[in-house]
Amino acid sequence: MLTILVVTSLGVLLRNLIGPMNSPEDIDRFKKRMIPLFKAL
C-alpha cells in the first residue's frame, strides 16, 4: 500500500514537471518514464 502512495506521488510530481498531458503521445511518453520507476520498486 505504501509503494502505491509513493508511485502515485512520484507520478504527480513527474506530471507537474512534464506539464499537462493532453495528447495520447504525451501519455505514452509518461508511461515509458514510469515503467523504470515501477521496476526500481
Short recap of the structure:
The chain is built from 2 helices and no strands.
Structural notes for this entry:
This protein has one domain (2-40). 83% of the residues lie in helices and 0% in strands. The protein is built from two helices and no strands. It has helices at 2-18, 24-40. The two termini are 12 Å apart.
In terms of topology, how is this protein built?
Elements (H helix, E strand, L loop, with lengths): L1 H17 L5 H17 L1
SS class: mainly alpha
Note the gap between the termini.
12 Å
Question: Helix content range of the residues, please?
Answer: over 70%
The helix/strand series, from N terminus to C terminus, equals HH
Tally of strands: 0
Reported for the largest beta sheet, the result is: none
**Number of helical segments?**
2
Q: Roughly what is the average pLDDT, rounded to an integer?
A: 76
The outline comes out as: globular
Strand proportion:
under 5%
Indicate how many domains the architecture comprises.
1
